[in-house]
Amino acid sequence: MAAEIDGPRLEPRSRGPARQLVVFLHGYGADGNDLIEIGRMWQDLLPDAAFVSPHAPRPCGQAPMGREWFPLTFREANERWKGVNSAAPVLDRFLDSELKRRNLPANAMALVGFSQGTMMALHVGLRRAVAPRAIVGYSGIFVLPDGGAPETVKDDIRARPPVLLLHGSEDDLIPAQALFLATRGLDALAIPVEWHMAYGVGHGIDPEGLRHGGEFLARRFRAG
């Protein structure tokens, strides 16, 4: 069994009990500290939200001080597909425990991923028994079995939350084309998806992308 996970948290700005939970899932070679500051930037938009950013379960093979949700060697067939499936149970348990910690229903949670964290957010979020309120994915991939069409996973999909995908046009690690492949794949599975291309941005999140993500979550939580 993979090691259980934990990471930094932020309490709601409203100072009352959390009414929403936003979970950040960091990228390959980073850790939970990498994204938790986004929570501070979003507290005005989401004053009743608690934020948590767990460290991925494995030491990173390419960044000794960082963590990984699963290994990336780019040599093994179906590496990403095997990876998201192997890491899913420990993330699912963490989400359940964090909702219990906050005494919140499962639909009061949103997932926000970056890069490998986006892969995990989409894989786990679309398979939850109760749909998250929303998923925001930066600079990531909607992982499918190698060579597989979206329809190959349709029987796995249990939840269809609204999704916002954002990507930098100059991303040299995960090409911007991944954004359009993901949006088409989600659309084929009847998952509502919006997207934003950040022109001139590489593998990262710019202020405009942060604004889009925070406003998207605020709208989705209000709609609930």
Keywords:
224 residues; 9 strands; two-stranded antiparallel ribbon; Rossmann fold; 5 helices; 7-stranded mixed β-sheet; alpha/beta
Description:
Helix content is 33%, strand content 17%. It is built from five helices and nine strands. Helix 2 packs across helix 3.
Mean pLDDT: 95
Secondary structure tally, helices: 5
Low-confidence stretches: none
Helix content: 25-40%
CATH fold field value? Rossmann fold
Q: What separation lies between the terminal Cα atoms?
A: 35 Å
Major sheet details: 7 strands, mixed
Radius of gyration: 16 Å
Q: Which of globular, elongated, flat, extended, rod-shaped describes the shape? A: globular
- What is the total tally of β strands? 9
* H and E order: EEHEEEHEHEEHEH
- What portion of the residues fall into strands of 2 or more residues? 15-25%
Strand arrangement across the biggest beta sheet: 1-3-2-6-7-8-9
- Multimeric status of the protein: single chain
Overall number of domains: 1
CATH superfamily, please? Alpha/Beta hydrolase fold, catalytic domain
Based on secondary structure, the structural category is alpha/beta
CATH class: Alpha Beta
What is the level-2 CATH architecture name?
3-Layer(aba) Sandwich
